[in-house]
Model the fold of this input.
Amino acid sequence: MIQQTRPLRVTRRSETFLSDDKRVIPRYLDFGHGPRIRGIFRRLLKVPERQVPGMLDEVLRDFAGRHRDVHQAFGSSFEQAAKHVRALPKLSENRRLLIGAYFTLEYSIESAALFNPSIVSHPDQSKLEERDHRFLMSLRATGEGHVSSIVFRRGVIHDGGRMSFDVPPRYACTAKPAPDPTFQKNRFLRKLREMGESDAAVMAVFDRLSDTFTRSQMRGVLERIGKEMEDPAAFAAVAREMDWIARANYTLQYPPDCLPSETVIFPATEFEQNGMEDLRLVQFTDDDGSTMYYGTYTAFDGRTIHPMLLETPDFNTFHVSTLTGRYAKNKGLALFPRKVDGQYLMVARWDGESLYLLRSSNLYIWNVSQKLHTPREPWELVQVGNCGSPLETEDGWILLTHGVGAVREYSIGAMLLDLHDPSKVIGRMRTPLMSPTPEEREGYVPNVVYTCGSMIHAGQLIIPYAMSDSRTGFATVAVKALTEHLRQCGK
Done:
């Protein structure tokens, strides 16, 4: 092993993010049992109409100031609960809102932890000093029941490296997928073909659908064709795949005045009901110079993990898509910020232990894999993975990694990949770039330092990192010193 000629200096900064249990979102209080829901309705319907305004006013006094639009939240909860009740009489708006309040709960999105950050350049760089740079950081917020959602924070890197952060807004802003979304036939069919479904049964369904169709229309066609098939069981498998695509791929539209730092992306489907984990955010530049923000994350339903892709041009509209292919599995996929030789590239750990380079001409399907690195050093002998998207420099791609060692200690390392052929490793760290200090060991999950994405500014690699899944800090290292160190270390 080639020895380094001078120490590599990593500076841990004083800025720290802590979770804020005052940030709450309203959610439907689902009792999951029709008779109980109907019983609550009966009791509330017996309340005399003259008492309803006073009861509602009392609820609003306590809760209206805690939410962006508590009336909308109560109305939405009423609509969901009312699906379980037949022949409801015509109700006053006040009674509808009052009933909705009884079927609403507050969820503190960060009450357990706020961690695993990823950082990108903010789309708005206006109204800054000459050498300042605005950034946007995503974080994994965890609340009751260890359910993870995605939140954002905004800040500025000032000349000299000082960082400042916007005060988190008082309110959190959520959105839900359309209840009966519309699909384009050609795009839906392409997604099916990515999954290997393109037989006569599939085409029989699409022959009966218009170029634009809704999920309910598709389900109606599936039901009718299922009754006509000679082999209903075989068709049922195709129908399940089609219904899965319709439910797992969705769009979230936030209000125009909802700031990114207010945005909360909360699990919206049953496939992610137990959490949306570890978003790896990247600002992607296409061949024509246009940019899009992508984020790979893991959806968890309590049993199975699903690799997903989040995409947004503006942090107001988000499209969520399934990732498919032989190697789109396990956790920790990270997309390169541009194509290389006309192909999308991804770093993955599809076998649960080693790092691989994936290539594809299709952003959503991944079938080509090449091994990059296997666990070798003491600090990574359990497994290795990436710590976010690779960062481009004139010396090569910097890929931050994580390794798991004894007592499940997570450390951060680094590799340098060839700029033109990232499958070639120029150098890798033999010892960690960062390991937990005594002060960083204690927390929700002890002995962990971890990041989901860094950025380069003014010659410095800026690493936001989680400390034992409880709080987030920042570290910096000179880019040139890091690449020289990696070259000296070699493969």
